[in-house]
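re the bet — no i am not wrong, look at it urself. input seq straight from the record:
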Amino acid sequence: MNPIQLLLLVLLLIYLLEGLFWVRRQAFGFQLSSSQKARLLRPDSPLGNAAASLVPQSSLPPLAPLLVVEAWPITIGSEGVLDQPLEVFQGKSRPQGGGNYLAFSEIKNARAEGKKIFINGKKFSLASSAKQAELLVDLLEQLTKAKPKARKEILKKAREESFSTKEISSRLQLLSAQGRSLAWFCNLQLFCLIVFTPSFFYLPQVAAYWREILVALLVLQLAIDFSFFRSFGKLFPGRKKERWFRFALIFLSPPAAVRARAFLARDLLAGFHPMAVAKVLLSQEKYRSFFAEAYRDLGFPMGPEPETEGAQKLLQQQRESLQRQCRKLSENVQQEEALAAPEPEEELSKAYCPRCHTQYRKEEGTCEDCQDVHLVLFKA
């Protein structure tokens, strides 16, 4: 391999690596399309660890952006907070956290450092994004300072905001408006990297115009930089450090500049519940399936359950509250439909898991994947 081929290979690898998002297992990716609907992506790739995996973005035009959304990684109630999530969407992974429960009377301070959430100076949990971590810390501070009677209303308002399909649609429209020119620039940048870079080395006719090509590429790069910087400020006001960091990244790397719109979109809906995002972005058929999966998870939760009485009470109360919120959101999807038994896959199937719908030939026991969830017999 000669130096020119090596350079082109390095550029290609940088471009592909910039297209990989490190996503927590409990999160979801929603890849937008031109129809403003989305394809649901799950971070179940083997390229990762127990907590997260790599999720690839679109590498070909039109470079559809990927939105990463995760439910709250901690469970918050009116009396305290638990370092485990309320929901376990991704089937086989048990809740993260050590079952650490803190009453609000025990919380002296809370802060966010990047994606990490600290309470009383100790790391308490990890969010999918810095934005989500900051939103949760703000909520914890409000609840800690509030009187016990006021906490329920504060928590109810926060939950309703996380389920606001109107606000989700508004954010998506803002992304479309702010990122329209950026999308064109990014796709044009990709075309230039694919066409002009190899041509410059292998076609003398093209190389003769290297000055003009260099100026054009520089203008395009600056257009991407300016458009990204302006759009980021509109979409994420107040996030100056992240804004400058992302700007520096795309400014110094033309392959990274192709992903500028993806960087803009990744955390656009951080803080919103995946169920509400799915309601807006998925087709009706796919949403019904998604709703059923999430609702079964709440009805038949995967363990282990925390040992403290306060934590157990918190989980029970918040599961019931979240079920009500889900039913309110999904008026056209009946609870009975979500909890309905699957059709037997074979004559020997005698029982099924009510949570993941895995079928078994045995009549009793617990699900091998969900472990603590008891099997249910098929009706004769």
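see?? The chain has two domains: 23-178+259-340, 341-380. told u. also Residues 165-202 form the longest helix (38 residues). so pay up
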